[in-house]
Specification:
With 688 residues, the chain is of the alpha+beta class. It contains 26 helices and 17 strands. Strands 1, 2, 3, 7, 8, 9 and 10 form a seven-stranded mixed β-sheet that branches. Strands 4-6-5 form a three-stranded antiparallel β-sheet. The chain has a three-stranded antiparallel β-sheet with strand order 13-15-14.
C-alpha cells in the first residue's frame, strides 16, 4: 500500500533569485532521506512561489520493507572460555543485539569460527518516520538567512505555516512555534486560507485561491501571454531567460500587461533604457524588426486582469520618473571631461589597505605594459594600453554609473567615444570587467583582454600581499572569479605568457607601493597555487581525469594554453593501446633518474651494449627536435621512444657496481627525464 506525502513550508516573501535553488535543495534532501530510510516511492514533484517551498512524494510506501540483518561477533575462541561458558565479550554482543546468548550461532570464515547472528527486522511504519521531516526543514541552508522573534533558527524568511500530510493524515511536528497541519494560504490579496484534503488536491486547492503552485506552469503562462501581446500589437519582445526566471519567482498568479513611455527617452543610450527597465523595474523591453527599442514595455502583475489600465498607468509613472532621472544624469555627465573624472578617482579608496583607485590604476598600468612586452606588442598597441590603463575607471565617478552600477564600463566606453578616445581604448574600458561570472562572456579585443588580465592579476596579488585571502566559505572580493577570469582569457587568446614571471614582477610592484604585510616569496607561492587551482577547475570542467590534471599542472610550466593542450591530449589518448606501455616506460625513466647526482655529461665511450647507444641517439634526436615540435608531436616522440627505453632496461643494469658506469647511465636517463617532466609528471598518471 502507498499514499502521497505533501510537505509545504509557508514563508514570508523570499528573495526571488534564491527560490529555484531552495526548492531543488528541499527535493534533494527529501529524496536522500527516503533512500536512507529504505522507503519506496515512484517520484517527487516540487512546487514553489514567493511564499512557499513544497514537495510531494508520489506513492510513498506505508512502511519500510521487512529485512534480514546479519551481524558478525567475536571469534569463538574469544566468545567462549575453556569451560564452554559465554565470555563477557559474547554476552555484550548479545546484549547489544537484544537477544539471549543461547540463540547465538557460529559460522566459519577462512578457517576461523565467529559468532554470527541472523535476525528478521520488521520495517517501521512510514507515519512514524515522517516526523523526521522536521530535521530536513530546519537543516536547509540559504545564501541569505535571518533570525526572527526569540527563535534560534536561522532561515531564508520566517516560517508562517507548515503542511505535512501523508494521505489524509497530518504528520505532527513543530518549528518556531508553528505546528504542522493541512491548511495552506492562497494569494496574499486575492485568496484565502484553504484546507488541503489530500496531496493530490494540492495544486487545484491553491489554484482556487489564485496561486499557480507549479513554477513551470507559471512560466509557461507568462510566455503564452507575452506571445499573445506580440501577435495583437505586432511587436517583438525578446525574453531574457534570467529576467523571466526572476519575474516568475516574484508572482503567484501572473498576468502580463504592457505600458508605454515618452519617445524622447529613446535618445538615451539603449543600455540605459534596458538597464532601467530590466534591472530596476523587472520589465521586458519591446523592439522592432531591426531590434531597435520601441517606447513600450512588458510587465507581469501578481494578480488577475482587473483594473489593468490603472496598473499600467502606475507602472508608466514609475518608469517615467526613472528615465527622467537617467536623462538628467546623462546630460550632466556629458559636461564632465575624462581628465576631470580621472582626477576625482584620487579621492576614492579602492580598499583601505590597497590605496585609492588612482594608485591601483598606476599599478595596473605597469603590469599591463609588462604583459604587452611579453606578447611583443607594437609601440602603437602599447600606447593604447597605457592610455586605457590611465583612464579605465573614470566612469565610476559619473552620475549614471553612480545611479546604475550595472552600467560601469558600458558608459565608460560610450563617454570615451563621445570625447574622441580611440575606439580600441574605449572598448577596453568596457571589456576589462569581463568575465563578470565564472562562465561569463570574455573580452574580444586584445587591448581589452590584456587590461582585464592586468587588472585582475593586480587585484589578486594586492589582496594577497595584505593577507586578505579567500577562505573556504568567504571570498568577498571575488578573487576566485578574478583568477578564473585570468586563466580563461589567456586560454581563449592562446597567449604564450610566462605567467609566473609576470606574477613575480607584479608582487614587486605591489611591494614597491608598500603593500608588504606578507613576504614576497610567500605571496608569490600563495598566488601561484591559487591560479593553479583555478586552472585545475577549468580542466576538471572539461572532464579531464584528475591524475592527468595533477601530472600536467605540477610540471612547473606556466604557459596556460600549452598546459591545457597537454592535458587535453593526454586525456584524449588515455584509452589508446599504446598509452599505458608508453606511460609506464616514461615513468620508469623518471623514477630511476631521481638517483642521479651531480653534473655529469653522458660519455658514449662508456656504453657496454647497443641498447645504450640506441637510447642515447634517440635522446640526442629528441633534444635537437624538441624545441620545434608542437605538443602532439612531442607526445608522439615520447611514444616512439618506448621501444628504445624497453630495450635499454632489458639489456642494461643501470645500477652497475662500477660507479663511473652507473653515473653515466643515470646521467642519460636524467637527460631524457628532463624532457619528459617538462611535458608532464608522467609518474603521477594512473595506468593500472
Amino acid at each position: 500500500m502507498s499514499k502521497d506525502f505533501l510537505l509545504e513550508i509557508g514563508l514570508e516573501e523570499m528573495p526571488a533569485k534564491y527560490i529555484t535553488a531552495s526548492v531543488r535543495q528541499l527535493q534533494e534532501r527529501v529524496e536522500k532521506w527516503l533512500v536512507e530510510n529504505d522507503l519506496e516511492y515512484t517520484a517527487t514533484e516540487v512546487y514553489s512561489s514567493p511564499r512557499r517551498l513544497s514537495v510531494i512524494v508520489k506513492d510513498l510506501a506505508e512502511k519500510q520493507a521487512d529485512r534480514v540483518e546479519e551481524s558478525k561477533g567475536p571469534a569463538k575462541k574469544i566468545a567462549k572460555d575453556a569451560a564452554g561458558n559465554w565470555s563477557k565479550a559474547a554476552q555484550g554482543f548479545a546484549r547489544g543485539q537484544g537477544v539471549d546468548p543461547e540463540t547465538l550461532e557460529f559460522r566459519e570464515i577462512n578457517g576461523v569460527e565467529y559468532i554470527y547472528l541472523t535476525k528478521e527486522v520488521q520495517g517501521a511504519a512510514t507515519v512514524d518516520l515522517l516526523p523526521q521531516m522536521r530535521q530536513i526543514v530546519t537543516s536547509m541552508t540559504f545564501p541569505v538567512s535571518m533570525h526572527w522573534s526569540a527563535y534560534d533558527l536561522k532561515y531564508i524568511r520566517p516560517i508562517k505555516w507548515l503542511i505535512a500530510l501523508f494521505g489524509n493524515t497530518v504528520i505532527p511536528f513543530e518549528i518556531t512555534n508553528v505546528t504542522t497541519g493541512n491548511e495552506t494560504r492562497g494569494h496574499r490579496f486575492l485568496g484565502n486560507s484553504a484546507t488541503v484534503s489530500a496531496p493530490a488536491d494540492y495544486e487545484e486547492t491553491l489554484l482556487s485561491q489564485f496561486v499557480v503552485a507549479d513554477a513551470s506552469k507559471r512560466k509557461a503562462a507568462i510566455l503564452t501571454q507575452i506571445e499573445e501581446i506580440e501577435a495583437v500589437e505586432n511587436w517583438k519582445i525578446p525574453v531574457d531567460e534570467d529576467l523571466l526566471e526572476e519575474v516568475n519567482n516574484l508572482v503567484e498568479y501572473p498576468t502580463v500587461l504592457h505600458g508605454t513611455f515618452d519617445e524622447t527617452y529613446l535618445e538615451l543610450p539603449e543600455e540605459v533604457l534596458v538597464t532601467t527597465m530590466k534591472e530596476h523595474q523587472r520589465y521586458f523591453p519591446v523592439v522592432d524588426d531591426a531590434s531597435k527599442l520601441r517606447p513600450y514595455f512588458i510587465t507581469v502583475r501578481n494578480g488577475n486582469h482587473e483594473n489593468l489600465e490603472t496598473v499600467a498607468k502606475g507602472n508608466e509613472k514609475v518608469l517615467r520618473a526613472r528615465l527622467s532621472d537617467a536623462d538628467f544624469f546623462y546630460q550632466e555627465d556629458l559636461k564632465i571631461t575624462i581628465d576631470e573624472a580621472v582626477a576625482k578617482l584620487n579621492n576614492i579608496v579602492f580598499h583601505e589597505k590597497l590605496g585609492t583607485l588612482t594608485e591601483k590604476m598606476v599599478r595596473v598600468k605597469k603590469v599591463a605594459l609588462i604583459i604587452a612586452e611579453q606578447l611583443q606588442m607594437t609601440e602603437a598597441q602599447k600606447a593604447k594600453i597605457a592610455r586605457a590603463a590611465d583612464i579605465y575607471k573614470f566612469d565610476l565617478v559619473t552620475n549614471l554609473v553612480g545611479e546604475f552600477p550595472e552600467l560601469q564600463g558600458i558608459m565608460g566606453e560610450k563617454y570615451a567615444l563621445l570625447q574622441g578616445e580611440d575606439a580600441e581604448v574605449a572598448t577596453a574600458i568596457r571589456e576589462h570587467y569581463m568575465p563578470t561570472s565564472a562562465d561569463g562572456e570574455l573580452p574580444q579585443s586584445d587591448i581589452g583582454a590584456l587590461l582585464a588580465v592586468a587588472d585582475k592579476l593586480e587585484t589578486l596579488t594586492g589582496f594577497f600581499c595584505v593577507n586578505i585571502v579567500p577562505t573556504g566559505s568567504a571570498d568577498p572580493f571575488s578573487l576566485r572569479r578574478s583568477a578564473l577570469g585570468i586563466m580563461r582569457i589567456i586560454q581563449a587568446k592562446n597567449w604564450d605568457i610566462q605567467l609566473l614571471s609576470v606574477l613575480a614582477d607584479t608582487v614587486e610592484i605591489e611591494r614597491a607601493e608598500g603593500l608588504n604585510t606578507l613576504p614576497s616569496e610567500e605571496v608569490f607561492e600563495q598566488v601561484e597555487l591559487f591560479l593553479q587551482n583555478r586552472l585545475r577547475a577549468i580542466l576538471s570542467d572539461q572532464q579531464i581525469r584528475h591524475d592527468i590534471i595533477d601530472a600536467v599542472v605540477s610540471t612547473g610550466s606556466n604557459v596556460v594554453p600549452e598546459l591545457i593542450e597537454r592535458a587535453e591530449l593526454l586525456n584524449k589518448n588515455r584509452d589508446a593501446e599504446w598509452f599505458r606501455p608508453t606511460m609506464e616506460a616514461l615513468a620508469r625513466v623518471i623514477n630511476i633518474s631521481k638517483k642521479h647526482q651531480g653534473d655529469i655529461t653522458v660519455n658514449p665511450g662508456l656504453f657496454e651494449n647497443e641498447s645504450e647507444q640506441q637510447l642515447f641517439d634517440a635522446v640526442q634526436k629528441l633534444k635537437h627536435d624538441y624545441p620545434t615540435l608542437i605538443i602532439v608531436d612531442r607526445l608522439r616522440a615520447f611514444a616512439a621512444l618506448r621501444t628504445a627505453i624497453d630495450a635499454y632496461f632489458e639489456n642494461t643494469l643501470v645500477m652497475s657496481d662500477d660507479e663511473v658506469v652507473r653515473n653515466n647511465r643515470l646521467a642519460l636517463l636524467f637527460e631524457l627525464a628532463s624532457f619528459i617532466k617538462e611535458f608532464a609528471q608522467i609518474e603521477e598518471i594512473n595506468v593500472k
